[in-house]
Each structure stands twice: as C-alpha cells, then as structure tokens.
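Study both lines:
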Amino acid sequence: MSLPEFDPRMLEALVCPLSQGTLSYDAARQELVSQGARLAYPIRDGIPVMLVSEARKLDE
C-alpha cells in the first residue's frame, strides 16, 4: 500500500499561516516552503501540517 501523495493543486488554496504569503512545494523534502516566513511546513501522509509550531526554520 503506497502513501497518499500531496496534490500540488492544493497550493492554489493554501497560504502560510504566519506571513499569509504563497507557498512552494518541495517534493524531495515533502514540505511546503514559505520564503516570506523562512519556514517549511511538513507534509505527512499527503496532508500539509500548517502549524507554525511544526514548521522547520529555513535557516537550519
């Protein structure tokens, strides 16, 4: 059984909860990246986790 995949069309409806800016999809890392907030939100089981507390800082 394969894991559900993220549908990139969801990017049309999603924004960064911190900056309200656009997101880009990093398929290799399975993350949604907010350059404005310098955060990367994880995608788990095909579902974006849009919580600032779960996001990875891009400066790491």
In short: The chain has a mean pLDDT of 93. The chain has one domain: 8-52. The two ends are 33 Å apart (CA to CA). Strands lie at 24-26, 31-34, 39-44, 47-48, 56-57.
